[in-house]
Amino acid sequence: MPSVQAEIAAAVKAAERSLADEAAGRGPRSGLRVPVTVVVMGRDYGRYLGDCLASVGRLDPAPAQVVYVDNGSADDSLTVATRAGVEWTRLRVGGTPGAARNRGAEAARSPWLVFLDADDLVPTDYLGALYAEAADGVDVVYPRVVRFGVERGLGPFLPEASRGDLLEGNWIPVASLVRREAFDAAGGWGDEPYYQDWALWLAMQRGGGRLVGAGDARLLVRTHPGSLTSQVRSHLPGYQSVLRSQPLTVFSAFGPDRPWLVEAHCRRLLAFAHRRPGAQHVLVDNTCDGAASASLRRYAGLLEVSPEDFLEDRERVSWSTPAERAARVPRKMAALWEAGRSRWRGDFVLSWETDVEPSQGRGPERLYEGFAPDVAAVSGLIRSRQEGHHWLALRRLPGGMVPAAWPGGAPEPPQDGCVDVDACGVGLFLFRRHDLAGCDWPTGGPGAAYTGHDFGLCAWLAERGRRVLLHCGARCRHWLDEEEWV
After folding, report:
1. Residue 394 φ/ψ, nearest 5 degrees
2. Region 198-207: what's the mean pLDDT?
3. Model confidence over 278-327: pLDDT tens digits?
4. How far apart are CA 432 and CA 378, in angstroms?
5. Contact 412/337 with Cβ under 8 angstroms?
6. pLDDT for 344-361, tens place per residue?
7. Is there a contact between 311 and 283 (Cβ–Cβ < 8 Å)?
8. What is the mean predicted confidence (pLDDT) over 107-125?
9. Sequence ranges of the domains in the chain
10. 118-151: per-residue pLDDT in tens?
11. Lower CB count within 10 Å: N or C terminus of the chain?
12. Does domain 248-478 have CATH number 3.90.550.10?
């Protein structure tokens, strides 16, 4: 079986042979056209544009239309485009790549679009391989990526983009085949300086269309100093900005015996709703108290909680010994989470317990700062309500769970930044909903390395190679009663 490196080398060589054949004028010309507009966008890429347009000109089948969009170039790009005989338009003052691509879409006359960067190349059969997968219900068809230039290799590829896979990060290139109607419905390209393609694919997927791969289509992505591709891959704030824009569910379960928490927590939820309009709120009423329940229903109306997202649970958990509490409470909390999970619709879920209050007003939003492709969840920094009030942060060692070690061996957590943990509380806990698919809410038990629905959930994620981070800048108060917190 060939090694990965041998496979990469073979793919790059095959792509380069294809280009050499095109340059020499070899290869079949069927005379067929497909209803696709190819939009080529560039800025000061005149040195690459001629090769790019030549590769587009040799596509077989050919596109119905080719449009070059010049994004405020100061070099000879327009001369190159004119010499190639393609239709062109220009942004005299350079804008974002998204603005330039949208200008090209305005000029397009076809029901399908392909957006190509001026430093990239396409083999002869590129459009045919993409268009062959353009079935009903498919809004995006994406190719395999072959990198050439200063960096050579194959990009990741999946036969179809599930929501969970696409939320981890983008592997779908700009030069995919896009259904025009779905592109317009998603709002076109955004003005983000980074990850506009990822944001667009996520928006189109939310619209209900499928995103599928064409394994026989190869896009040749040129890697060179200063290319957009090299800049984007290292821009984590841009990645996190896209995640912030995805649908969010806020989940809170109100327990018994502390009716004073209802109004206090609902006011926090209302303040957050003003900062994050459109978020779904799922509330569980386990107060077992008539007055508290009536108050909670009133606030649910202010939060515009739909009837199906307001759950009632009148079962009160009781215990007579610490052992009974350790067994029954985690099972009850897991049951409440399971009831809520059936209603969650957001790509991200913010678990916000009623006795947890961020000590900084924007605490929940700061949790997004911890996300990277391999991170499943980020928690705020919370102390335990139990005696000793230790930080709810543990690491797994061969002998069992131990308190997390802070950077540099410090006795206390830093004032900001994120720390890897194997288990933590879920009082203020932001996670990707799709990462919980198949979770059976482990709650520990005799001899287990963890106890509780919260530590059990974190351990379940860690066992699957997903990281959980603690954001030390998102510190929270953990209320003990109406006047005391830790």
Report:
1. -130, 150
2. 97
3. 999 999 999 999 999 999 999 999 999 999 999 999 999 888 888 888 77
4. 10
5. no
6. 999 999 999 999 999 876
7. yes
8. 97
9. 4-233, 248-478
10. 999 999 999 999 999 999 999 999 999 999 988 8
11. N
12. yes
Contacts for 323 with CB less than 8 Å, ≥ 6 apart: none
Q: Are 172 and 140 in contact (CB under 8 A)?
A: yes
CA dihedral 340, 344, 349, 355 (to 10 degrees): -30
In the chain, the percentage of residues whose pLDDT exceeds 70 is: 90
Cis before 61? omega within 30: yes
Taking the CA atoms of 309, 435, 365 and 474 in sequence, report the sign of the dihedral they define.
positive
pLDDT in tens, 147-177: 998 888 999 999 999 999 999 999 999 999 9
Q: HSE, CB side, 13 Å, CA atoms: give it for residue 473.
A: 10
Residue-wise pLDDT tens digits, 223-265? 988 766 656 555 888 899 999 999 999 999 999 988 999 999 9
Q: Residues with Cβ < 8 Å from 209, sequence gap 6 or more?
A: 137, 138, 139, 140, 179, 182
The residues, any chain, with a CB within 8 Å of residue 66's CB and separated by 6 or more, are 37, 38, 40, 53, 56, 57, 86, 87
Q: Hey, what CATH topology would domain 4-233 get?
A: Spore Coat Polysaccharide Biosynthesis Protein SpsA; Chain A (3.90.550)
pLDDT score of 449: 45
pLDDT tens-digit profile of 26-67?
Answer: 555 788 999 999 999 999 999 999 999 999 999 999 999 999
Pairing of strands 33-42, 62-70: parallel
Tell me how far apart the alpha carbons of residues 250 and 349 are, in angstroms, rounded to a whole number.
6
- In this predicted structure, the answer to whether residue 472 has a pLDDT above a threshold of 90 is yes
